[in-house]
Amino acid sequence: MNITIAKFFIITTILLFKSLSFADVISMRSDYWCPYVCDPRSEKPGYMVEIAQQIFEKKGHTVDMRLTNWVRAVKDVRANKAQVLVGASRMDAPDFIFTHNTMGIMKNAYFTKKDSQWKFTGRNSLQNMRIGVINGYTYGDSIDQMIRNRHKSFIPFSGEKPLEQMIRMIQTNRLDAFIENPVALHQALKKFGVAAESLKVAGWVASQDPYLYIGFSPNHPRSREYAAILNRGVEELRRSGELQRILDKYHVEDWEKSKISLGALDDFSPRVLKSSFDLLDMFNARSL
């Protein structure tokens, strides 16, 4: 009897050890970019964060989500100080391992104060303008090249909440415009108590790849495995309806079921909108 109990104890211990050995702490990094990534300590940490948490924790892993500035987030994941980059485009880190399933969609625009007469009509229209951009973000080949070449019109902002900085500076006339995704901007305006009607769209930014992803470190041995887990998990969440339940908390629709095509967005301009708020409201819910 004692031998049988001892064998049972040994087998149970081995199985438990094997189970624990495959349970990882998965470190995720991003900057604050609500509704994609919000405060990880809150009940609404961002819909991408919630999706990742549900999928990985179901597999026995623990998710450690931390905020930093975007440049640091990319560097940390590339150096394997963290394993996951949340809310990235493929252009942000071409060497990373990305899921097949997308995690969102974005369309950047130039935003100005409501009373501004400026419109983006091409490179020449940038002359003598002060335009805020976020350090390390990608905005498409043309703008990225100008930023790399230190075009004097583009002013990079860093830190954990650069969007808030740009909003405050345009209010005090220290910026003429800034580039942002209307989904994130709408959330930020509500949080900072700034009226959406105080801003308007002055032009769209051309984008070769408008999709957002969760990316994995190219230097972590289990990155492809994690990507495969996330891929399957997103498909399961979508089939079960749980994905939309998560998105509903953030007033966002499933991007794969969007009723507005990306091509259609290029047809919008400030002159065809009833008010500046209409555009932001269009992106707020049931539009992307």
Description:
There is one protein chain. With 288 residues, this protein is of the alpha/beta class. The chain folds into two domains: 127 residues, Periplasmic binding protein-like II (D-Maltodextrin-Binding Protein, domain 2); 128 residues, 3-Layer(aba) Sandwich (D-Maltodextrin-Binding Protein, domain 2). It has ten helices and eleven strands. Strands 1, 2, 3, 4, 5 and 11 form a six-stranded mixed β-sheet that branches. It has a five-stranded mixed β-sheet with strand order 8-7-9-6-10. Helix 2 links the parallel strand 1 and strand 2. Helix 2 packs across helix 7 and helix 6 crosses helix 10.
Please outline the helices and strands.
Blueprint: H1 2-21, E1 25-30, H2 47-58, E2 62-67, H3 70-78, E3 84-88, E4 97-98, E5 104-105, E6 109-113, E7 131-134, H4 141-148, E8 154-157, H5 162-171, E9 177-180, H6 182-192, E10 199-204, E11 211-216, H7 223-240, H8 242-248, H9 262-265, H10 276-284
Helix pairs in contact: 2-7, 6-10
Keywords: Signal
Protein name: Solute-binding protein family 3/N-terminal domain-containing protein
Domain Solute-binding protein family 3/N-terminal: 41-254
- CATH fold category name of the largest domain: D-Maltodextrin-Binding Protein, domain 2
Give Rg in angstroms.
22 Å
The sequence of SSEs as H and E is: HEHEHEEEEEHEHEHEEHHHH
Low-pLDDT regions: 12-21, 259-288
Shape: globular
What is the strand tally? 11
Question: N- to C-terminal separation?
Answer: 65 Å
Average pLDDT confidence is 85
β-sheet strand percentage:
15-25%
Helix run count: 10
Number of individual domains: 2
Largest sheet: 6 strands, mixed
Protein name: Solute-binding protein family 3/N-terminal domain-containing protein
Organism: Bdellovibrio bacteriovorus
Keywords: Signal
Pfam families: SBP_bac_3 (PF00497)
